[in-house]
Amino acid sequence: MNCSKTLTDGAQVSLATILKNCRLIFISLFSICLLVSCSDRAEISTTVEEESRWYTPAQLLSGTEVFAANCAQCHGDTAQGLADDWREKLEDGTFPPPPLDGTAHAWHHPQSVLLQVIDNGGAEFGGTMPAFATTLSQNEKLSAIAYFQSFWNDDIYTQWTKMGGVN
Ligand code: HEC
């Protein structure tokens, strides 16, 4: 009788140990899952941060009009450029208007430099781009930038942010 009681006790103890171990294993697995899903979420939020743009939908909308009225005749409706090769000089020795859609090199310039180009045009270095300092407001110039940047893919946009971006 005693013997069998001990046996039962022993069985109960080992069952309790197994249960305790199971709980431990379960807790560790749960923590690992939690960690993995947290780090997943961290990755996603960094990507979204990198891809999010500085301009608002309203700026983009107004930029569509500003660009169509002031820039598209030279740079193309979708900022794609109109020359066969924007790197090749024209007969008069000047450069054609380059694409601004991310396929040329506008993305090498931070926003302050893009604004300077739009303000001063190309005259000071022998170019033919007109100056917009007095004809467009600061908001209109920024909107025009938002418009052509909307054609930049995320890779180009990220490169731009690394080379100065909105500075
Ligand atoms: C009459 C044609 C013309 C118009 C209109 C024009 N551009 Fe340009 N743009 C040029 C040319 C040509 C260049 C190359 C520099 C030069 O020769 O002046 C240029 C260069 C640029 C650059 C520098 C690109 C780079 O790769 O560094 C930006 C940015 C730009 N233009 C934006 C605009 C915006 C925004 C507008 C409208 C507000 C506009 N341009 C209107 C002709 C024009």
UniProtKB/TrEMBL annotation:
Extract the InterPro entries matched here: Cyt_c-like_dom (IPR009056), Cyt_c-like_dom_sf (IPR036909)
Keyword hit for Iron: yes
Any single GO molecular-function term of the entry would be: heme binding
Q: Which Pfam families match?
A: Cytochrome_CBB3
Q: Which UniProt key words apply to this protein?
A: Heme, Iron, Metal-binding
Q: Which residues form the Cytochrome c domain?
A: 58-152
* Protein name stated in the entry: Cytochrome C oxidase Cbb3
Which organism encodes this protein?
SAR86 cluster bacterium
